[in-house]
Design a protein that fits this description.
This protein has about 160 residues and is mainly alpha-helical. The protein is about 60% helix and about 0% strand. Helix 1 crosses helix 6 (about 130-140).
Length: about 160
């Protein structure tokens, strides 16, 4: 569906949603970058559920942990900037979905799961990571960046 078929309210609501999620990603990345003591070690070690062993093994490898921390910080920043600016938005949305899937699988909201890192609420199967992942899927399915975003200028020559 072309964003020119959206009503102004639909278009700007989708753009607002894209920018809000972009801000969340960008701010999370910058806050991690600005904290010299930040590491994903505690988060990975706190993992439970189906992939607990995988996340614990990632945390147990210092070289891999450094790479993961770098990718996490800069992934959050670049995904956030891409979503806010509407620049390489498809890539940003897909990368954001992958990152959120890892967060979700690391700390799935399962019955009986207890985490040392405090949660913002009580969840069962659905948490904020899953909701944001699904929202990025909606953003991917209802593109606004070809009307409101830098992608409009980058990819304009490829449109009819």
């Amino acid at each position: 569906m072309n964003s020119k078929n959206y009503s102004p309210w639909q278009l700007w609501s989708l753009v607002l949603l894209r920018v809000a999620i972009g801000w969340h990603f960008l701010y999370e990345g910058i806050s991690k970058l600005m904290n010299p003591d930040w590491s994903s070690l505690a988060y990975l070690m706190d993992s439970e559920g189906w992939f607990e062993g995988l996340f614990h093994s990632m945390a147990g490898n210092p070289s891999l942990l450094n790479v993961l921390d770098f990718l996490n910080i800069w992934g959050l920043i670049l995904i956030g900037a891409g979503l806010i600016l509407g620049m390489f938005t498809r890539i940003a949305a897909i990368a954001g979905m992958v990152l959120l899937a890892f967060y979700y699988l690391s700390h799935p909201p399962l019955v009986g799961a207890t985490y040392l890192i405090p949660s913002e609420g009580s969840y069962l199967w659905v948490n904020k990571n899953l909701i944001e992942l699904i929202t990025l899927w909606v953003i991917l399915l209802f593109p606004t960046w070809n009307t409101v975003g830098i992608d409009r200028f980058i990819f304009n020559k490829y449109r009819n």
